[in-house]
Structure formats: structure tokens, C-alpha cells
Amino acid sequence: xxxxxxxxxxxxxxxxxxxxxxxxxxxxxxxxxxxxxxxxxxxxxxxxxxxxxxxxxxxxxxxxxxxxxxxxxxxxxxxxxxxxxxxxxxxxxxxxxxxxxxxxxxxxxxxxxxxxxxxxxxxxxxxxxxxxxxxxxxxxxxxxxxxxxxxxxxxxxxxxxxxxxxxxxxxxxxxxxxxxxxxxxxxxxxxxxxxxxxxxxxxxxxxxxxxxxxxxxxxxxxxxxxxxxxxxxxxxxxxxxxxxxxxxxxxxxxxxxxxxxxxxxxxxxxxxxxxxxxxxxxxxxxxxxxxxxxxxxxxxx
Length: 301
Hints:
single chain; alpha/beta; Rossmann fold; six-stranded parallel sheet; two-stranded parallel sheet; 10 helices; 12 strands; globular; disordered C terminus; RmlD-like-bd; NADP
């Protein structure tokens, strides 16, 4: 009998691509969006586990409104901290593997070299603190079967994101001022979904040790550099994208100035890390353009 996978947050951008990836594997995938499963409700989680008895749980559910978390930290903590703790407890009871998706915001963002998986955490925002709480709950509850996969700068066809926004703005703005003092790794949700599938399979096979993994694209760029590459793919002049500083766009939550992550543990587990961000964007772009163009008045679809 094929193993059963439970994907929480299945209606989100990453969740959609993960469910699609699992459709090509010899597994049974149960997709649970937030209406089907409140991960912070122990009773609902017990019912879901009793009904489906998953061998692998991938937690894509999260509070991702970074700025709103500054004024609603308790609400964010319920989803980002309590929810993973409840899932971890259920996985321990049922002997299931848990893959929990986390974030670069658990770091201070002041490094000069890519963060290894065991680098000290020091979140500077409420969002980062709540995500770190979820990481700790998973790793403490499931020392042998708990996996934390940190990612960053996600984009995909299945939801609102930076790439789709820039596609839209290119058609209505002569120039764009984009932050050039934050450095990270644009990561396609399709690529991350593929690594989550491989990691879950390796966990069941006993070939990937539990712990922290970094699931971001190779290389790195700034938001300005990212936008210029988007313009290039649109056939637009990248010089229309002008560099500016974070101070020009003050936000309630501080953004990491440097959030490039290293990928040693995927390689050590025999799983190829994600490719360079430019190569991924090239392949992803037609689907992103197709998803955004119907929403753009006056642009051919």
C-alpha cells in the first residue's frame, strides 16, 4: 500500500505545487486547506490523523503577513508556533514524519556569508519569533522524525507574489524604484515542492537524518536585481528599474538585509540542492505570465 501524505495549507502557493508534485508519485496525498484543518486545534488534528493515518505530514500552513504580525503576534503565534506543536504531537503519537516549512526570518540578517543550517538564530521581527517557536516545537517533540525546511523569497503561479506584482507593474509604470540593500534567494515553489517530496521519501527510507534543511535556490541577488531579471524576461528595459534603499520604504517589520542560506544538509543527504535562481525563473516565467496576464487590463492574454 502506498504511503499516505497529509499536506496542510494545501490551498497556498507552495501547497498547490506540492500536491501537484505528489500526484506524480506512488503515494496517496490528502490536501487540507485551512477550512478543512485548523492546525492549532488539537481536536481537529486528532480527527484528521484518525481518518487518514498519514505516514508523512508536510506543514505548509502559516501566518505569512509579516507586517501584520507586529501588531498581532499572538494570532501569528497560534498558527506559526502552536500549530506546528500540535502537529508534532500528533505525528509522535502516530509515528509519522513531519516536514515543517520555515523561513529565513529566524536569522538576524546581518551575516556576510550564507547561513549554514546550524547558524545561531536571532529573529528581529514578530513573524520571525513565531516561526522560530514552531521550529523549536517540531525539533524538540520529534528529534528523530522532525524536519524543518527553511525557505525564502518564494514565488509561484498559484498565488500573489513579488514576480507577479512586478509583471503587473511593468505594464503601468515608466520606472520602478526597488530596494537594492536586501540580499536573498528567489525560490520557485515548484522547485521547493520537489525537494520536499524527495526529503519525505528519504525520511521514510531512513537516508536523511532529522533536523534543519535549507530549501532555497542557489546564488543570490537583491530585490532590484530580481526585478531587472523579470523585466529582461518581459522584453522590457532593465534600466527602468532603479535601485533604492530600505529606508525609502519603511515597514512595521524589519526585513533581513542578508538572508542567503547554505544548503549543506540536502547535499549530505544525497538530495541535490535547488538550482540557480535565474535558471528556475527562466523556466517558471511562462506560467507566471499566464497566471498574471488575465488580470492586466489591456495586455494580451
